Fold these 2 entries.
Entry 1:
Amino acid sequence: MKKKQLVALMLIAMKVTAVQLAFAILFISSVHATAQGMLDKTISINAEKKELKKIIADIQGQTGIRFIFSATAIQSERTISLSVKDQKLGTFLQQIFLPLHIGYKVVNDQLLLYNTDNVQLDREVSISGTVKSNKGELLPGVTIQLRNTGSSALTDAEGRFELKRVAPGNYTLAASYIGYISKELPVVVGDVPLNINVELTEDVLQLQGVVVTGGNPKKKIESSVAITTVSNKDIEARAPLNSTDLLKAIPGLTVESTGGDGPGNVWVRGFPQQGGYIFLGIMEDGLPVIPTGYNSVPSADQYYKTDLTVKNVEAIRGGNAAILMANTPGAVVNNLSYTGADHAYGKVKLTSGLSQDLYRADANVGGRISENVKYNVGGFFRTDKGIVSPGYTANQGGQIKGNMTFGFKNKKGFVRVYGKYLNDKVQWMLPGYYSYDGSGKPRAVDGYDLFSQSLATIDTKWSYTDPSGKTHNYDLSDGIHTKLGYGGFQFNYMTDNGWQINNNFRYQTAKTNYTVGIPIGASAYSSGNYYYTDGTAAAFKTGENIVTAVALAQNNQDKQIIDYLDFRKKINNHQLTLGTGIYQYNVNNSPNNTFLFFQELKEHPRRLLAGSATGNGMIPLSTTTVIGNTRTLSAYVSDEITLNEKWRLDVGFRADNDHITGKRPYYGVKADGSGDPSVAATTTIAGYTDYTENNTNWAASVGLNYKINEAIAMFGRATKAYNSPNITDYNATTFDPTTIKKRPVYLGELGVKYAQGSVSLFASASYSAIKNVSLTIAVPTTTAGLQNILAFGSTRTYSAEFELSYRPVKQLGLRLTGTLQDSKYTDYNASTKTNPSVLAEMGDTTYSFTGKRTERVPVLNTELSATYDLKRFNINLSANYIGSRFTSPSDSYKLPAYVVMRGGIGYDITKKIALKGWVDNLLNSKVLTEGDVRGDQFRNFSTVTKGTVMAGRTILPRSFWASVSYEF
């Protein structure tokens, strides 16, 4: 009987010659599964413009099932694009093959494919139409379904679809497409064919999009994690000034990019820090760029750069970040690169900073070398005088990055090799001085305008011979110069029994030289002689200000070896992940020299020599080192449990062991010959104390997602995480092991996701608390330069984060993002006893900041943006509101709220060539982003008179930009 069915169906399906029929029969072979379980096997396919016959071969490789078909009958040479993950074969055939008019039949232990157009049925009424985007673009590959029937279709290259032989009745027609909000329409089918045109609205929040960060790809609307996705299209529209600037697109983050292309500062959900990326982990293609937990030296944003090689950015906020990356309780941002495709693609972009003599070239190309080999390569180079010019080239350099993917012939996985070389020099724009009037505005002082003029000295070069007789040559115009190279590979394979193995390995070496000047004080001239470095006298009037500054001259080197191995398997309704990893981070920051010098308070100031016309004016203060190795061993497990179609539970656990070895410097020797940590730092290191430290920490998280329907879902999550000491904590000369405490982090959040029609919403409310976090207060000293008071504090934060997208009319898109937060210290006391140099100058004092608001974190931070499309033109405008915040944990000086706007216009000359112009800080808002971080903690502002010269840093002034791009 079965043999008769096989013959009959083949005759119906193929309508081919006997020779073709014989050729098809040759493909029949033994299989590895029973017919009963065939359609329940799961498959994962990601294809872009791939031939149908190759997709069938992929399925055969993953399932072991043999297919019988006529290449002519089913048109197996045609190409389609799709992406499915762990989908049952039966569902795949219904949703993908039936719309292509390919039917299927289980015959014995094989699958027969046939052309449904050749099967005579009673239903003769058809539904056809066209699908377009809200911008009028034809959309190929859209899935069209009649709910509660087996009828479905995919739109062709012209956006057309057709559902054939639909019986009369009332139906719901559904259209879905990645990157767009799904749409449902009521349909009444009678005796005549229907023509329906569908318009899909772009899903700006990408709630229907698939997120890959975290190992198990899933739709955002099905995830119990607070996720923000920034596509390459979003990156292009935002035109970020640098990598840090792009992070402003992510709710929950408070971002300061006022350091220019130099190190930025990012606060996460109100967690306290002095700067840098203490609670935010940065990844590049799934691996950390540096370990989480460091301030500005090293700074994560100097290890990666945003360019055209970035396909999209995924940000995991809150609890689940602690499971994805060691010592990362706040958020993880993963920068994902293009990795090639079945077709060639590319883009070249030329950008000019019209306000600053910036010239930048970006390029990225990719495609297929052969059937199983794909590639992508790109990078950038730029030269830039700086938005606020220091009098020399501020930023210069670039990177090249590439990857090549070798797919296995059995279609079960791939090996990808990749590499990057970065050589980039940037200016670190640091605080200057303004005239205080209590308004929080940067008023000019002595003719110097902090907002638009640089306080970087133009006398940049000097030489120094250290006590050992070695000569060092330094140049402040070098700024922060990073030379970095890495290479690695990713191995991904699906075994016959359904285990997916993924191994990601990278070796990286970096050398970053910091040569920067940091103003630490300004005082009025009263008497004395000053000279320039060329020996000529510098004339000062009484009351004119002279700036005291320190120069950091650091030679930092690090090597990283990272290897993470994951095993994933779908077992019934469980999606299980088991993983282990090793992260070796070796640093040799030596020598790190600090100098004291004087300079004028004016634009492009000269360096000053005090009292004598000889010398270079650079007074050596101290020499420090950070030498040591950190090895982190990690183990993690997670399980995502599909309770039913609506409820999804996920649990995760991670354990990390840090083994840290190093050499702690000391500057004095006790009578017994051992190191004396009470002696303040000098230019001569008396010796080193070897140390070994071990820490084991863990994090656990549980989340629940309730998918009410395809448009709306709710989620909740509870997490216990940690913040761990790093090598710089243990390297302090005055290190006291009794001060190292466990730093638990507790997080809880509830959220809702909605995407229907022209509206998308992602909103969450959260609670975050951290105990015993390491805090430092930088204090300028006259004998040892910048020194740190070490302390520990605890905070709690209540916050709400939201992303809202709305398209009121076809051409206009609106987006509102923001963070509302209340963050306070629950315990914070700092003592001068923790640093001998500070103790000597300030005496034995303890400062209490308990009950105060976390510094530099606004209560409200929100951005409203609008885009308007008019034929070939695109106009965009955004306004970013930053609420009031305090400059220090003493809450003594409140900076006012402000608004920064940016706007731009684009014009598509052709489908491939585009022009764009934009303005950053459109209204030229002139405000402070920080005060005196090295003094406001100890200052009573009620006693500060107007006109007092104060330290601060501002946002960048208005700048104009233009670009032209060619894309294929």
Entry 2:
Amino acid sequence: MRRRTGKLRTAIAIAVFALGAGLMTPLPQATAAASDPVTDYCESQCNDIMPPGENGNATLAQILAHRALGTRPEHSADQLGPYDALPAGASTLTDSTLNNFFNDSSFGVPDDQVASVTKPRDDVSITRDKKTGVPHIKGTTRYGTEFGAGFAAGQDRLWLMDLFRHIGRGELTSFAGGALANQGLEQEFWPQAPYTEQDLQDQADRIAAQGARGKQAMADAQAYVDGINAYRQKSKDGRYFPGEYVLTGKINAITNAGEIEPFKITDMIALASVVGGLFGGGGGGEVQAALSLLSAQQKYGVTEGSKVWESFRERNDPEATLTVHDGTSFPYADKPADPKGTAMPDKGSVKAEPLVYDRTGGAKTEAKTPVDAPKKLKPVQGMYDNGVLPADLFSSKKGMSNALVVSGQHTASGNPVAVFGPQTGYFLPQLLMLQELQGPGISARGVSFAGVGMYIQLGRGQDYAWSATSAGQDITDTYAVELCQDDTHYLFRGVCTPMEKMERTNSWKPTVADSTAAGSYRMQVYRTKYGIVTHRATVDGKPVAYTSLRSTYGHEADSIVGFEMMNDPGYVKDAKTFQQAASHIGYTFNWFYADSRQAAYFNSGMNPVRAAGVDASLPVKAEPAYEWKGFDPDHHTTDVTPATQHPQSVGQDYYVSWNNKQAKDYSSAGFGNGSVHRVDLLGDRVAKLVAKGGVTRAALTRAMAEAAVTDLRGEDVLPELLDVVRSKPVTDPAEAKAVEQLEAWVSDGAQRKENAQSSHVYSHPDAVRIMDAWWPLLVEAEFKPGLGDDLYSALTANLTIDESPSAGHGPTGAHAGSAFQYGWWSYVDKDIRTVLGRPVQGKLGKTYCGGGDLSACRDALLTTLGQAAAKTPAQVYPGDDSCAAGDQWCSDAIIHRPLGGLQFWPIQWQNRPTYQQVVEFPSHR
């Protein structure tokens, strides 16, 4: 086992120019110069894209000019058009036209394409290209290379990095304002990763003590921080810093008084905790799972109820699409034959742990008290009144990333082809930053999360490329700690032990950007040896606190060593060495690799070794017998499963991933990973390409692009529903018309796609509207009568019914792009096939539609179909701040969430990675 630790417009325009020479100074430009070429084995067959654009900083003058005149800073939107154009252009895509929709991601910048060269030190240059403004950082020393990366990050993402380091410390409202959404965001995140400043420093020190790699990683991090701080000071002195610092009251626009706080190493740890919390966790939710199990047992009895619950749980559904599909088994976190130590709550005893205390002012009243802003700032007053980020950024479900990789034996060239990337949401600027790093021991191009970009986290090297999808396997458990003495003491290994109270007090005053009235509040959590207290309850009559224990807690930045290896051409030389690098990533990710010879896959994560008999899906007693093996709470360490036990593969015919089940017997951490999953939109298409052979970059990109505009329900579940409906003639004219519209849509590919580019009208708008209205109605009519109100409600708390793209549905939120990951499609599919008498592996514990009677099921479906068809567009798409009621296209559309003063237009919905690569290496070192 491993052990791992008009007049108005004119007036505004005049105001812009009245700001003064200091704030009007453009971002500094350097004389253009060429850089030496570096070794690149991709030979112009590597591409990437990341909308809206590379530049994520805007001075106050640029923000006001944008609001007044519609102008935008250079390179803030130049990748949005090509990204948006792909759905319309995919059908005729060829390898030679990929550059119309993607950037050429070759290393270096041709001499005639150099826009500028900046030299923040003598040992590093930052070359930016004319087309996209991506920084190509080249250093002659390791320190200089990383200093340049930090300096470039400051140029492109200074405000964003500042936001996220404060989120990581639970201090967003004190920094950006007390808007209700800001309060909600920090209240969602901070309890997941509450740390003292010493905790953060201890994590950095532990990494530095982990041998030569760890020491180098922290030296690189310090150089990166030094680079950020160099740009921070230069931009402040030169008055070309992001304008948000003025609008939030940090710096005076006239006198330049104020400060951008220096960055430090512990900020990197805090930033890493945010990234991990968003995309690299897995498991948890055992209390809610226990509540639904109790509900099932109450309805059906313990034995039958447990069987029904397990069928909805779908830990290891035999019909689930697998990334490793060659039959290799990787057992992990399955249901034990004889569960031991399970700590089920007594009925009605569970109460969520309070978090917020001592609200004052605006925290209590939610009042707005706008400041008396200068006339020139009126256009941006209140721009953060609804929050700088979505309140549910951490609480909502995330759809994260996909990958399509085909091995060389099935491609036209004989070399592997990959189309992959992370699906990280749509923000302005993006959470990710695109860059190239070339220096001693580092050679890569790709993206990193802003603020932790000392290495490329997803991208390409000299002769290989890699990407990841969120895996989400179970690395978080819930323990029931028995209380002793009072509510703040618990038994730890037989000793009554005080809980550690952790607090964060935030206060704010209204600013130009956020009008929320002055206020404050205090957040409080209790930390135990078994994690953070989340609920209180009784178990067998005894009072307990339920705690959440995550294996990566206290190890937020340990993965830096794995990324260091991935960027090192001296380390990664083939698939196996890449897998070894990936094994050093503690967060739960699926890693994909391609070079000219091999395609490969590896699942990373600090998978704890559980005690025999422990059911990872439910709460467990906090007793030594049920602790993780090798558990040391004082150092946040535990035994973790060895790399050989993680799903992995080299040379499989193809790999697909869209946050689906990884391999046989590798248990899914959440509900609903069964017979229908959005990965099927990829898998079915790639399987057909592989069977045909001769796969090209364009063909694989087309498969991705087609899946990106396809409705999963329409493609994989609707045909079965229509079979039930058509089991007898449909005589009602309105119902018959609806059926015909749905059938026409299915035969045309069940796509949510414009009938012509920029028409903003779908090819089958009525069918899409009916589907969106019908799905929630049919699910309730199919399951609620059989399950009963209580169990139905409990199961929908475990897994939401729907996640269509439109703003009125699903947990991901409005205009977010990602869709169809979370929903009851698998349940509906299995149940309807059972009613139709078709083969089903892993049936649900009962048959629900019509109680198993085809005619009764048909009646339920037709009744709800008629109700859905009668709903108007305005009823189905009620509208929001961005879209009028009834505007179907806009309701689906992707809208980049502004994190600063710039705004963007809606684009066609695509269920697609935010940053995406298309790669095919023809040669190797």
